[in-house]
Amino acid sequence: MIRKTAWITGANGLIGSHFLRLAPVYAPNWNVCGLTRGDLDLTDFQNLRQVFVEQKPQLILHCAALSRTPACQADPSLARKLNVEVTTQLAELAADIPLFLFSSDLVFDGRQGNYDETASPNPLNVYAETKVAAEQIVLANPRHAVIRTSLNGGISPTGDRGFNEEMRRVWQEGRTLKFFTDEYRSPIPAAVTARAVWELVAHKQPGLYHIAGSERLSRWQTATLIAARWPQLNPKFEPASLKDYQGPSRPADVSLNCAKAQKILSFPLPGLTEWLATHPDEPF
Fold first, then answer.
1. What's the DSSP call for residue 250?
2. Please, what sign has the CA dihedral across residues 256, 12, 161, 246?
3. Is the pLDDT of residue 3 over 90?
4. What domains sit in the chain, N to C, each tagged with a CATH number?
């Protein structure tokens, strides 16, 4: 049997690297090609088209993005180029094959929480605006899919992509972090995200899906869980409130409702507390 080729953009990132690592387990019938910036500059559209024609991928998992909110705020034109224009090119090239775009819970304004796929996005920052624009481009094709996810944790190739890695690095330096007690997300291990999306790929049901943890946690609660994982670092952290935050607008509660995807998946999406308790030896 000839295995079909799948492209994974952003293969050096957290989610992309987990897709690559877990493909032999959850996608054994795919020949997976992980693309990093060094392999292929996605903003060189002429070369991108040439490589696409040569390799003829039959699936694209598009994880590459400028995903740090402060970087997007600082350079909106770069954010648009990387998050919207690149997505546009890939969507055009992949017109006749499945393409999965990774988006974010941050497309919502955070006033409601427990958002399902019928909720209307209302982005509060440049990053979220570019993700909403990219979603619209992708969903215009009925073969394509958008996966909105939340805070993903785990070990990345560069050691700085998972929210847990950022915390650990600061604690290793002996510094103190502040975490909001009134900002809520649905954190999930990247390994779970990868498994879930590989299953959605196999089911061939495109569209819009939320894939996140089943537990609504404040940033403070999440930090408490991660700190308990690393007692040897003597983690220092303090509670804070969004009311005192002076930076760009942040949504207060972007917890996600994943019932639509859960009906398709063969396993329950775990909450972070449960997953950490049942995977004590997993690097995190």
1. -
2. negative
3. no
4. 4-159+188-214+257-270 (3.40.50.720)
